[in-house]
Amino acid sequence: MTAAPLLPAARPHAQHAVRIGDVLFGGAAVPVIAGPCAVEPGYPEQVPHVAAAGASVLRGCVHKPRTRPDTFQGLGAEGYPLLDAARAATGLPVISEPLEVGDVERLGPHCDAFLIGARSMQNTPLLREVGRQLHPVVLKRGLSATYDEWLGAAEYVLAGGNDQVILCERGIRTFETATRNTLDVAAVPVLRERTGLPVIVDPSHAAGQRAWVAPLALAAVAAGADGLIIECHPDPDASWSDAAQAISPEQLRAIVDAVEFLSSATRSPALGSLSDCREGIDQVDAAIARLLERRAALVAAAQEHKPHPAGRDAEREARIARRVAARAPRLGAVGAEAVMQAIITTCLAASEASKLEAALAG
Ligand code: PEP
Ligand code: MN
Question: CA 214, CA 331: separation in Å to the nearest integer?
């Protein structure tokens, strides 16, 4: 029996992929947008760390919709040159939030996509204005908006002629107060099915606490999210805005790696062209590489528990090859055995080499 696809690529509505710069949302890969909550004076020096951690697009918000007026409201137009500097420093596209209609034209040349924040989801003049632009629009779900209200807001953008719309779930208001908002993971499969628009998730504003960002991010990708937007700062506690939910570049790297792995294991790759197939193969190879690293580390740890000198256990190796052959029938018994023998031998050799290295260093 062949398993049914977990996250089918073909939808009742054709998937409508959207590009921010040259980063595709709604394709095989699951890109991560990241950066500090607000652009700070040190932004151009901060973003290379975020880029190095695997972000594909930078958050670059200079107009900030803050809950209280006595908190940092963003650098405003003074921050625009910092967006230019960030783009130049990293080569990555930047997404930024216009708060009012007049911001759209001023901000446009300094960013590659517009973010419409949760509080602005029903600001219809703003929606109409970004609907007239060429920049893609990431439309966040309002604080207590239903799917229909959210899609109604998307219609305002689409009606203006801008079909480059990405929906972003960021948590909704519920009776729970432990998290900042309650992440509605169901929004991902429901809206991907109902609209064909890419659906991304912001685990940061849902969690409100950095320790919960990674689990929510992975839940979103497991549910089929087409991307993530995450608040990341090289010195999270020093963030000028939303410090409690800011993660470090190291934590971002772990999420990006896990997302790559998870998406290659669950999403149905496109098979329509040679380049589609090759993209899928590259993703699977990246996942295999991560698993091989993990296997090699386990083999090295296992050696510590064996009597010395540890001989090879031919019976166990044959059992492993049989188990893999059963799970990978396309390889055939002979092929599976050859692959596993190579892996087993290589992992053992790597553990010997690392032991030798440690002995030489010690
Ligand atoms: C943001 O992403 O900058 C933000 C303010 O989040 P939200 O609009 O989801 O509250
Ligand atoms: Mn924030």
Answer: 35
pLDDT per position as a tens digit, 86-122: 999 999 999 999 999 999 999 999 999 999 999 999 9
Q: How far is the CA of 240 from the centre of ligand 2 (A)?
A: 10
Q: Which ligand is nearest to the CA of 180?
A: 1
* Three-class DSSP category at 256: helix
**Contact at 8 Å (CB) between 114 and 129?**
no
36 lines ligand 1 (CB under 6 A): no
Whether the CB-CB separation of 267 and 224 falls below 8 Å is answered with yes
Tokens of 66: 């803050």
Q: Is 61 in the pocket of ligand 1 (CB under 6 A)?
A: yes
Encoded tokens for 276? 């589609």
Å from CA of 50 to ligand 2 middle: 16
* CA 221–ligand 2 middle distance (angstroms): 21
Q: Parallel, antiparallel, or unpaired: how do β-strands 18-20 and 23-25 relate?
A: antiparallel
Q: Which residues pair with 267 in a beta bridge?
A: 7
Percent pLDDT > 90 in the chain is 80
Judge whether 74 and 64 are in contact, CB under 8 Å. Answer: yes
What's the one-letter identity of residue 347? C
User: What residues have CB less than 8 Å from 156, skipping those under 6 apart?
Assistant: 124, 127, 128, 131
The pTM of the full predicted model, rounded to 2 decimals, is 0.92
Ligand nearest to the CA of 97: 1
What is the pLDDT, as a whole number, of residue 9? Answer: 54
The residue whose C-alpha atom lies closest to atom 10 belonging to ligand 1 is: 118
